[in-house]
Amino acid sequence: MLDSDTQAFLQTGVSISLAACNAARLACMSRGMGCKVFDGGRRMAVFVKRSQSLELLDNIAATGKVACVFSLPSSNRTFQLKGADAVVQPFELVDMAIVNHHIDEFVQEVVPLGMAEQVVRTVFSCTADDLATVVFSASAVFSQTPGPKAGEPVGGAAAS
Amino acid sequence: MNVRLETIRECLEGIIPGHIGTCDAEGMPNLAYLSQVEFIDNEHVALSYQFFNRTRQNVLAGSPVRLLLTSHLTSAQYRLELQFLRTETAGPLFEQMKAKLAGIAAHTGMSGVFRLLGSDIYRVLSIEQAVGPTVAPPPPPVNYLTALRRAAQKLAGSANLQCLLETALDSLQSEFGIGHVMLLMHDEGRGRLYTLASRGYPESGVGSEIPMGVGLIGISARERSPIRIGFMTSEYTYGRTVRDSIAAEGYADTLETAIPLPGLPEARSQMAVPILACERVLGVLYVESVADLHFGYDDEDALVAFAAQLGQAILHHQQAEEVEEEVQASDNAPPVPAGPPLLVRHYAANDSVFLDDDYLIKGVAGAILWALLQDFVERGRTEFTNKGLRLDPRIRLPGVSDNLEARLVLLQRRLDERSTGIHLAKSGRGRYALTVDRPLELVTD
Fold this sequence. Notes:
The complex is a heterodimer.
Chain A: H1 4-10, E1 15-21, E2 27-31, E3 35-38, E4 43-49, H2 54-63, E5 66-71, E6 78-83, E7 87-90, H3 96-110, H4 117-124, E8 131-137, E9 140-143
Antiparallel strand pairs in A: 1-2, 1-5, 3-4, 4-8, 5-6, 6-9, 7-8
Helix pairs in contact in A: 3-4
Chain B: E1 18-23, E2 29-34, E3 37-41, E4 44-49, H1 54-60, E5 65-70, E6 77-88, H2 92-107, E7 118-129, H3 144-156, H4 161-174, E8 180-187, E9 192-199, E10 209-211, H5 215-223, E11 227-229, H6 238-249, E12 269-277, E13 280-289, H7 297-320, E14 342-347, E15 352-355, E16 358-361, H8 364-379, E17 383-385, H9 386-391, H10 404-417, E18 422-428, E19 431-436, E20 440-444
Parallel strand pairs in B: 14-20
Antiparallel strand pairs in B: 1-2, 1-5, 3-4, 4-7, 5-6, 6-7, 8-9, 8-13, 9-10, 11-12, 12-13, 14-15, 15-16, 17-19, 18-19
Helix pairs in contact in B: 2-5, 3-4, 3-7, 8-10
């Protein structure tokens, strides 16, 4: 279960990347378009663009195993969450507000770092009918903030 | 592979960090951000190995590797499938990545955290572009091929080494739009580089020196490889690196330290490109800018090609200047100039020369000047040839491959810059004429 601080962090203007592997252990990853933590911090939903994530979604359907990285560009604070029960669900229109809010917050995060807003918004441009929702519970959480503690489990989660 | 890696190199600069995906033996994926991807060629890239993390464990255990890269210019995203080949812990690639990483670390507040342990080399098995909209990239600041063509034509039209150097630096400014540039020549015998020309600085710094292997310029020369940094980092700042090197290596007696190396105090982008010809390092071109990420892969390619042309031309002029026969000392002594004498003091220990107590130069150029002035005072000689100087036992050139012509250009520039009243001018191929405005008083210690 994620603590409230980590839950809040995952739902701000962080960069999100979601990965899953195929039977040959080749990973495929896509950018997350936003994240929703629910069930008291036990489960989360990450939204991805279906059209650019066909391989990723197939891998999730086949294995249920995912890795998801959340990183705040301005501070390098980074977490990686692992899950073994991931499922792909249809995107619910009500979650579009979360996606739009996430994109706005990410733009506010990276434009001061020198990124062109048009480029960022193009990376994240999406329509509700092209989104998919990947739901999983975090079986392990790791700090990946660069430094001596990078890779350490957070909150006593078992190492993966 | 539909996409050629060379056409998407902006994705490797780390402006939008790439992601690397691997997998453990149980099929659990692992993701990490990449601070650096280095382009080697269309089939190979190198990733920085900084920590023994889960990614590295998976790779060494045989995991396939996938990257997700994003262009900060077009928004396009690419997935690359890689195969790990080997790790390098020294050499040109390692030094290129180490320097670049130092800049990235400083820029991201990670100095002291990011440290390159190795360059992991991968074969690129496939590149696919992810489905999604893109934007048109902004036009490049320079058409590099046109700039290179025009600059090469100008180099080809240079009559001698001095003209070639002027043309080279002018071309870098006018054709490539580079505002701050230095050209340093390699002193092979003494293991250092000396500044022969520069543009864009308050002081030319002609005659200043840097040891081989020190700072961006010295490492570039030692490794025979271009080195490029996109962000300011104190690790490669000259003032500090040269001082540290002098202290550590005991250069203090012989390294030119009275003439400061020119350079921007706040350089954010730096690039050093070796000038190579016939397997030799002739010198280094160094360019810099106060802007972040000012020089990219295209700038690097263009300058490497330019430096190759320049190297061949330098070698040609060096050899051409030494084919003339020795001239005899003139029987007609020049008229003795009037006015107060100029005191010329020579210190044999390091061949340093002072004019009226003002330091001018030392080393080989100092020895050349002292020989010229001795012959002038004792024999009234004003005409000299490169060939004669090379054979002169007083000068002790480090070797037959030494670029004597470059040392004469250096001496000529120092004399002109200091308004010494002593002038050295080319009087023909392989020949120089000495003129002196005041009587000379020579003293040696």
